[in-house]
Design brief:
Elements lengths: L3 E6 L8 H10 L18 H5 L3 E4 L11 H10 L8 E6 L1 H12 L6 E7 L35 E6 L8 H9 L4 E5 L11 H11 L1
Parallel strand pairs: 1-2, 1-3, 3-4, 4-5, 5-6
Length: 208
């Protein structure tokens, strides 16, 4: 029996202008200094937590600190030879936005069983306090409604206390995609949490 394939795409920062990116480099807080406590996140243990029943892809997408859609598109497509029908796509933050744009604009050579969109921005407004604005990762809003015809199912996961992408973005996705499941959290912020058992349960439910 073949394993259930799960393809996860992480987040990143995307800027509409190079000057904005340079400003971010000059002003962003430096993290992960020696002795600092490193943030533990659910995605780092996704493959382990899903277990032997799943084959989990977690590629490092190009230039995540100054991401460009075309570069991510190329790298995603490089994986196509390894993917089969009924793959589950999981996109977090910029990764969710990437999947929405890619799937609405392109014909995939394999079927998608389910698309999980975690904390994705619907438009380049109210994206936290960062100088990044999503760059060229936003889908054409007029095309978002075709998404349900291209995947088996859609789940929108968002927390009301998200300090990067406000919860209103999830509501806008839900309005455009009434067929989608909206899963609302109260205290998961931007899913910068160590564990996300609710996502694991939903993937396992689809797999089984």
């Amino acid at each position: 029996m073949e394993k259930q394939q799960v393809f996860y795409v992480h987040g990143g920062d995307a800027f509409s202008s190079y000057d904005a990116f340079i400003h971010e480099l000059k002003t962003r807080e430096i993290r992960n200094l020696p002795g600092a406590e490193h943030l533990k996140k659910w995605s780092t243990t996704l493959a382990e937590d899903l277990g032997e029943a799943c084959e989990v892809f977690t590629p490092q997408m190009p230039n995540a600190t100054n991401a460009k859609y075309e570069e991510w598109k190329i790298w995603f497509e490089r994986h196509f030879e390894y993917l089969r029908d009924d793959v589950i796509l999981v996109g977090w933050s910029l990764g969710a936005m990437f999947f929405v744009r890619y799937v609405t604009e392109n014909k995939l050579p394999f079927s998608v069983k389910h698309l999980f969109m975690l904390a994705g921005a619907y438009e380049n407004q109210d994206i936290g306090k960062l100088k990044e604005d999503g760059g060229d990762f936003f889908a054409d809003q007029a095309r978002i409604t075709v998404l349900p015809s291209k995947v088996g199912g859609i789940s929108i996961l968002h927390s009301k206390d998200d300090f990067v992408v406000s919860y209103e973005h999830a509501l806008k996705y839900k309005e455009a995609l009434p067929e989608a499941e909206l899963v609302t959290f109260e205290d998961k912020n931007h899913f910068l949490v160590e564990e996300l058992p609710e996502l694991l349960a939903k993937i396992n439910e689809i797999t089984n």
